[in-house]
Amino acid sequence: MSVPDASGFSARGVLTADSTLAVERLQIDAWRRMSPLHKVRTVDGLTRTAQALALAGIRHRHPDASERECFLRLAVLKLGREATLRLYPDAAALLESSA
Q1: For labeling, which of 6, 52, 86, 92 is most exposed (least CB within 10 Å)?
Q2: Distance CA 43, CA 19 (A)
Q3: d(CA 30, CA 62)
Q4: Which residues have CB under 8 Å from 62's CB, separation 6+?
Q5: CA 69 to CA 56: how far, in whole Å?
Q6: Virtual torsion, Cα 45, 46, 50, 55, nearest 10 deg
């Protein structure tokens, strides 16, 4: 493994800090062998999983929240405060109460 510089990144661009260069090369080779459709499906699955985990966290932190409130809180996580307010004006009341 490369030694990270002051920024925390090595010159070779480590994908994971806990893997050897040989393992990283195996991972990259596996990605290169994947068809474009397989890559899209993999990214889609990972995106859906990340969104489900984020939504589960929101529901855990706000057990009495409505589906709309959970949706808006997820929008803030994904889009940021300003974009959420532009797209979903009803988020203003939620964001004011949690500020």
Answers
A1: 6
A2: 21
A3: 40
A4: 69, 70, 73
A5: 13
A6: 0
Please state, as a whole number, how many other Cβ atoms lie within 10 Å of the Cβ of residue 84: 21
> Residue 92 is which amino acid?
A
Predicted local confidence at residue 5, as pLDDT: 54
Q: Tell me the C-alpha distance between 2 and 20, whole Å.
A: 9
Please, how many CA atoms are within 13 Å of residue 82, restricted to the half-sphere of its CB? 0
Low-confidence ranges of the chain (pLDDT < 70): 1-13, 99
pLDDT computed for residue 1 by the predictor: 45
Name the DSSP letter for residue 12: T
Spatial distance between the Cα atoms of 22 and 66, rounded to a whole number of angstroms: 48
